[in-house]
Structure to design on (963 residues):
C-alpha cells in the first residue's frame, strides 16, 4: 500500500486508542391507531361497502363546498351567476351551477366482479393489468359524479387534463347540456387539511428531536443467500460499525421505519404454489398433521427477517409496516404482522394489550398499513405503496413532457401522492379496486390532519418533493392557529417515495428539523470477479 | 494482544481457510470493531509482505459517489438545499406545468463493499471518500461477495450467549439508553444455551441505565416469571409424559380411539419442544393472546384436559344418539375389545359354488368355482351341452354383486346378541 494514502483511522496497525461509547439520540414516538381494525369477533365482513362512500362524502363535502364557494362566489358567464346545487339530481339543464359529489370512473379494463365468476373457466389467468385505461378507445372512459341521490355524467375538455379517480370528492362547475351530460368548466378539490403543529401530541417538547428518521421499504428477503449483502451492510451501518470513528450520522438516526414488503414476493408466491401442489398430495394421505408442514411452508425468509430485526433492535427502535407480500391480511388497512412470527425480535414488542388500556408502544412496533403516527413530534402518514400503484392505473401520465421514462414515472407517483393529500383521501380507490375492510361508522382513509411527512413505500425509484397548501387565511376550524406565525399555518408536506431496498439498496434519511432528505446506498462493487 | 490476534487470524484464515470479518474478529476477541479493523489491516499487510497474495481482503468504502451526468435543470425555483418547492399548486397536474420539480440534488452517501483488486476502480467512482476499512480477510478471492453474509449468520450460532445489550459497548455498537426489552421472553436460542442464558437474563434487566425516562412497564414483569424460567427445560419433557399416561387411563374405555390419541400427543409435544411457544400463538388473535402463556410450555397440558372432556362429551352424545336410533342397548366397548370388522361377511353360498379367497394387503383375490356351460361334440357327432364347475380367478374389483347385498344388510339383520361391533367407531367405519 502506498504511503500517500490516508489511513482513515482504520488502515493502520492496531492502536491503543480508547473508543468512547456512542449513544443514540432518543426517539419520541407516538403511534396513532387510526387504522387499527376491531379485533376478534368484533371484526365483521358482512357489511355493504356503500356506507364508506356515504361517510366519505359526508365528511369531505363541507370542505370541498367551502373551497368551491370561495372560488366561485359571484362567478358569472355572460351575466349568468353560478348557482349552488345541493344534489346532483337537482341540476337543471342549461343552468350554470356547481355541485359536489364523489367521482366514479368507468374504465374499460377495470376488474369486474363478474370475472371472478368466470374465473373457474379460465384456461390461464390474465396477467395483472398495468392500467385500467384502454388507450385505443378513450371514449370508453366515463367520468361520473355521484352522491346519495344519483349520478351525473361529466364531459368536457377539462376532464382530459384533470386527473380524477374513483372515490375522490370534488366540486364541479358547469352546465348540463342537451344530452343530459354535465359540461365541466372547473373542478375544485378539498385541498390540504389543517396541519397540526409540531410537538402537538407529545408533551416533552424540543428537548430532543435532533436527529434523523430512516425509511426503508421492500427489503425483499427471500431466504436465499443471494440478496443479503446489502442487508448486511445496512445492519452494519445502523449499528454504527461502518461509520468513521465517532461523530457520524448513524447515531443520529432515531428510528427505522420499514414500509412494507420486508419479504420478497417470490417467497410467498413460491410457498403458495407449492402449497397448492401439495394440496392434492395432502388429500391423498389425509392424515392430520399438527404444526406446519415443512414441505409446504418455507420459514427461512421470516427467520432471516427476524434475525435482521433482532440484530438492530438493541440499538435502534423499529416500526414495521406490512406490505403486499408480507404475512398479514391482504385488504387495507393491513394489520400489523403478528409478533409470533418473530421469535427473537418479539422480546422488544410491547406487552400484549390487557383489557381496555392501550399498551405503551413497543420498542419494536409492528403497525398497520397505512400508518399514522408522530415521530419526533412530526406527524407522519404513510403506506406501503398499494394506494399509489392503484391510483396510477386510473391515470394516464404518458407523454406529458420530454423527460425520460423513469423520471416521468417517479414524477407521476409524487403527483399522485400530492393529489391524495389534496383530495384528503389516502386510498380513494378503495373499495372500488383495492380490497379494503367494509367500514361502517368511519372512513379512516379520509385524511383528517395534514402530515408533515407523507411517504409511500415500494416505489421503483426514490423521489421527493415539498408541497405547500395555498391559502393561509382559510382556516378549517376555530383553531387558534390564526395567532401563530405565518409559516406554521401554511401546511408544508415532505413527500417521499421510498424505493425498494432489494432493487436499489437505498435507505432514506429525513432530518427531523429541516426535513431535508439524504440517501444512503448500499451495494457490493461489481468488479473484475463479476465480469468474468 | 498483538500475539493473540495474529495467532487467531493465522489459524482461521491461513490454516482453516475461513473468512474473518471485522465483526467476527471483534466478537471472538471481545474487542472494539474499530480495533478489529486495524488488526485485520495489520495482519493483511504483514502476511502479504511475507508472501504476496497469501491473504485477500475486502474493503468498505464510505463516501459521496460521483454523480452521473445530469442533463437539464429546467430552470425551476430550486432552494439552496436542492429541494424543489412545488408551488402552492391550485390543483393537480398537467395543466400546471410549474409543478414539475426540477431534478433534485439529494445528498447521497454510498457504502460499497469492494474486493481488494477493485479497490482503485471503486475509489475512482467516488467524489469524496469519508472512510475506508477492511471488511474481511480470506485466503483467496471471493467469487461471490454474498458469501460474507454467511459469516455473520454463523456468528449468531457461535456466540449465542452474547447479549447485545451487554456487550454492545465492547463491540462499538451504537448504544441506546431507552431500549425496552421484556425480560419474560428469551430470544430463541439453541436449546443447549438455554440454562446459562436464563441466569444471565435476570441480570440484564438491571443493566439498563437508571435514568431511563419512560419507566418501561415491561421491565417490571413479576420476577416469578423469570425465576420460573430455569425449570422450563426440565419441565418440558416431564408433563408431557404424565399427560400421556393420563390419556391412556382416560381412554382405556374407548380402545379404538386411544390409538389415535397416542399418535397425536407426541406430535403436539414435538412441535412444542422444537420451537418453544412459537407454534401456538400464531393462531391466536392479538387481543385474546396471553403472552404469559408463552412462558410456560404447559399450554398443551392445559389444552388437553379440556380437549379430553369435550371428546368424552361428544362420545357420550353420540352414544345417546345411537341408542335413540337403534332402540337397543349398545354394549360397552371396553368389554369387547374391538376386532377389525370382518372384511366381507360370508355370503349365503349356493351349494355348488366354492371359493378360495385370500386377503392380501387389503385386496381380496382368489379363485372361485363357477358353473359353466360347455358345448362339445361327442364321439357320435352329437352336440352335447354339459354344465360343469370351473375355477376362475377374481380380485376384489370384480367381486360378484350378490355378495355385497348380504354384507350391507348384515348389521341390521344381525341379532343384537352379536355384540362384536359394539364400538361406535365400527358404526362409522367403511362397510
Amino acid at each position: 500500500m502506498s504511503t500517500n494514502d490516508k489511513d482513515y483511522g482504520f488502515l493502520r496497525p492496531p492502536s491503543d486508542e480508547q473508543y468512547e461509547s456512542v449513544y443514540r439520540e432518543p426517539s419520541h414516538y407516538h403511534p396513532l391507531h387510526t387504522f387499527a381494525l376491531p379485533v376478534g369477533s368484533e371484526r365483521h365482513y358482512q357489511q355493504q361497502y356503500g356506507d364508506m362512500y356515504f361517510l366519505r362524502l359526508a365528511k369531505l363535502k363541507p370542505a370541498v363546498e367551502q373551497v368551491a364557494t370561495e372560488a366561485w362566489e359571484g362567478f358569472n358567464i355572460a351575466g349568468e351567476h353560478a348557482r349552488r346545487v345541493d344534489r346532483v339530481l337537482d341540476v337543471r339543464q342549461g343552468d350554470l351551477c356547481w355541485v359536489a359529489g364523489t367521482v366514479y370512473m368507468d374504465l374499460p379494463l377495470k376488474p369486474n366482479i363478474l370475472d371472478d365468476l368466470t374465473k373457474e373457466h379460465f384456461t390461464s389467468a390474465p396477467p395483472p393489468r398495468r392500467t385500467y385505461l384502454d388507450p385505443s378507445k378513450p371514449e370508453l372512459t366515463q367520468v361520473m359524479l355521484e352522491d346519495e341521490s344519483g349520478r351525473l355524467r361529466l364531459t368536457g375538455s377539462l376532464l382530459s387534463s384533470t386527473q380524477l379517480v374513483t372515490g375522490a370528492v370534488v366540486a364541479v362547475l358547469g352546465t348540463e347540456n342537451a344530452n343530459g351530460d354535465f359540461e365541466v368548466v372547473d373542478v375544485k378539490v378539498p385541498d390540504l387539511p389543517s396541519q397540526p403543529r409540531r410537538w402537538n401530541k407529545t408533551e416533552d417538547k424540543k428537548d430532543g428531536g435532533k436527529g434523523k428518521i430512516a425509511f426503508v421499504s421492500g427489503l425483499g428477503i427471500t431466504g436465499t443467500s443471494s440478496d443479503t449483502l446489502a442487508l448486511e451492510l445496512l445492519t452494519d451501518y445502523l449499528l454504527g460499525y461502518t461509520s468513521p470513528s465517532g461523530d457520524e450520522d448513524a447515531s443520529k438516526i432515531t428510528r427505522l421505519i420499514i414500509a412494507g414488503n420486508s419479504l420478497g414476493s417470490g417467497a410467498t408466491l413460491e410457498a403458495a404454489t407449492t402449497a397448492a401442489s401439495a394440496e392434492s398430495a395432502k388429500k391423498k394421505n389425509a392424515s392430520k398433521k399438527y404444526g406446519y408442514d415443512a414441505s409446504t411452508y418455507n420459514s427461512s425468509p421470516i427467520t432471516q427477517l427476524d434475525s435482521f430485526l433482532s440484530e438492530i433492535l438493541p440499538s435502534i427502535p423499529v416500526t414495521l409496516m406490512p406490505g403486499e407480500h408480507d404475512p398479514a391480511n391482504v385488504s387495507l388497512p393491513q394489520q400489523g404482522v403478528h409478533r409470533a412470527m418473530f421469535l427473537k425480535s418479539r422480546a422488544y414488542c410491547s406487552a400484549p394489550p390487557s383489557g381496555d388500556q392501550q399498551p405503551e408502544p413497543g420498542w419494536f412496533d409492528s403497525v398497520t398499513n397505512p400508518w399514522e403516527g408522530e415521530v419526533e413530534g412530526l406527524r407522519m402518514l404513510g403506506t406501503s405503496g398499494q394506494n399509489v400503484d392503484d391510483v396510477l392505473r386510473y391515470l394516464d401520465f404518458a407523454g406529458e413532457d420530454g423527460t425520460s421514462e423513469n423520471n416521468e414515472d417517479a414524477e407521476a407517483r409524487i403527483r399522485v401522492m400530492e393529489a391524495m393529500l389534496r383530495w384528503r383521501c389516502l386510498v380513494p380507490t378503495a373499495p372500488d379496486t383495492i380490497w379494503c375492510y367494509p367500514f361502517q361508522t368511519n372512513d379512516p382513509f379520509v385524511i383528517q390532519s395534514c402530515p408533515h411527512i407523507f411517504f409511500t413505500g415500494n416505489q421503483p425509484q426514490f423521489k421527493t418533493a415539498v408541497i405547500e397548501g395555498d391559502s393561509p387565511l382559510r382556516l378549517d376550524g376555530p383553531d387558534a392557529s390564526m395567532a401563530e406565525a405565518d409559516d406554521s399555518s401554511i401546511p408544508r408536506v415532505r413527500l417521499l417515495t421510498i424505493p425498494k431496498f432489494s432493487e436499489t439498496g437505498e435507505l432514506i434519511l429525513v432530518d427531523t428539523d429541516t426535513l431535508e432528505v439524504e440517501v444512503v446506498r448500499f451495494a457490493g462493487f461489481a468488479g473484475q470477479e463479476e465480469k468474468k | 494482544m498483538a500475539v493473540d490476534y495474529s495467532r487467531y487470524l493465522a489459524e482461521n484464515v491461513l490454516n482453516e481457510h475461513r473468512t474473518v470479518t471485522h465483526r467476527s474478529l471483534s466478537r471472538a476477541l471481545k474487542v472494539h470493531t474499530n480495533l478489529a479493523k486495524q488488526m485485520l489491516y495489520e495482519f493483511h499487510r504483514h502476511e502479504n509482505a511475507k508472501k504476496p497474495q497469501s491473504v485477500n481482503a475486502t474493503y468498505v468504502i464510505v463516501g459521496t459517489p460521483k454523480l452521473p451526468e445530469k442533463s437539464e435543470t429546467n430552470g425551476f425555483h430550486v432552494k439552496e438545499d436542492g429541494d424543489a418547492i412545488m408551488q402552492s399548486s391550485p390543483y393537480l397536474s398537467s395543466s400546471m406545468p410549474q409543478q414539475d420539480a426540477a431534478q433534485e440534488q439529494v445528498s447521497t452517501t454510498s457504502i460499497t463493499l469492494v474486493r481488494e483488486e477493485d479497490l482503485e476502480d471503486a475509489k475512482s467512482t467516488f467524489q469524496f471518500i469519508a472512510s475506508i476499512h477492511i471488511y474481511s480477510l480470506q485466503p483467496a478471492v471471493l467469487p461471490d461477495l454474498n458469501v460474507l453474509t454467511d459469516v455473520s449468520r454463523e456468528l449468531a450460532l457461535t456466540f449465542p450467549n452474547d447479549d447485545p445489550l451487554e456487550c454492545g459497548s465492547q463491540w462499538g455498537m451504537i448504544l441506546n439508553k431507552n431500549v425496552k426489552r421484556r425480560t419474560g421472553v428469551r430470544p430463541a436460542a439453541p436449546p443447549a444455551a438455554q440454562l446459562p442464558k436464563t441466569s444471565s437474563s435476570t441480570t440484564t434487566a438491571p443493566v439498563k441505565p437508571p435514568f431511563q425516562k419512560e419507566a418501561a412497564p415491561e421491565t417490571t414483569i413479576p420476577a416469578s416469571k423469570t425465576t420460573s424460567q430455569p425449570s422450563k427445560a426440565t419441565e418440558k419433557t416431564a408433563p408431557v409424559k404424565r399427560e400421556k399416561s393420563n390419556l391412556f387411563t382416560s381412554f382405556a374405555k374407548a380402545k379404538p380411539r386411544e390409538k389415535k390419541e397416542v399418535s397425536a400427543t407426541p406430535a403436539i409435544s414435538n412441535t412444542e419442544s422444537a420451537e418453544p411457544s412459537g407454534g401456538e400463538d400464531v393462531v391466536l388473535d392479538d387481543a385474546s393472546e396471553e403472552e404469559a402463556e408463552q412462558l410456560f410450555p404447559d399450554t398443551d397440558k392445559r389444552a388437553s384436559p379440556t380437549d379430553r372432556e369435550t371428546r368424552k362429551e361428544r362420545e357420550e352424545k353420540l352414544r345417546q344418539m345411537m341408542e335413540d336410533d337403534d332402540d337397543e342397548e349398545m354394549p360397552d366397548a371396553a368389554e369387547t375389545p374391538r376386532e377389525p370388522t370382518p372384511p366381507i361377511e360370508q355370503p349365503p353360498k349356493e351349494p355348488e359354488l366354492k371359493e378360495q379367497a385370500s386377503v392380501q394387503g387389503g385386496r381380496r383375490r382368489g379363485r372361485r368355482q363357477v358353473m359353466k356351460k360347455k358345448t362339445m361334440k361327442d364321439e357320435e357327432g352329437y352336440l352335447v351341452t354339459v354344465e360343469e364347475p370351473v375355477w376362475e380367478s377374481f380380485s376384489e374389483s370384480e367381486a360378484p354383486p350378490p355378495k355385497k347385498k348380504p354384507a350391507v344388510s348384515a348389521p341390521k339383520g344381525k341379532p343384537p346378541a352379536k355384540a362384536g361391533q359394539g364400538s361406535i367407531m365400527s358404526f362409522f367405519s367403511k362397510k
Notes: Chain B touches chain A through 116 residues (CB under 8 Å). Strands of chain B lie at 20-21, 56-65, 85-86, 107-115, 126-138, 355-360, 363-377, 383-395. Residues 232-311 of chain B form one domain. DSSP finds 14 helices and eight strands in chain B.
